[in-house]
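ESCALATION

Customer reports they have been waiting on this structure for their group meeting. Please prioritize. Original submission:
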Amino acid sequence: MANKLTWKDTEDIAFALIDTHPDQDPLKLSFPKLQQLVLALPDFSDKPDGSNEAILEAIQMAWYEEVK
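Update from on-call: job pushed to the front of the queue and completed.
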């Protein structure tokens, strides 16, 4: 990915998480753990405190929809 990811890029974040954590069940992650995984993505470059429950849920659901 040429562009850096931000919290608004929920679907792109979901795809990046699928690539980096292919065996992870997104529904078994707490939101704090999901936030840690997003912040650890090499292409992520937004503020660590820029997420909220709605954003994390959107990422989790996008991830789940792709792997179910």
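Sent to customer with the following note: The CA atoms of residues 1 and 47 lie 19 Å apart.
Escalation resolved.
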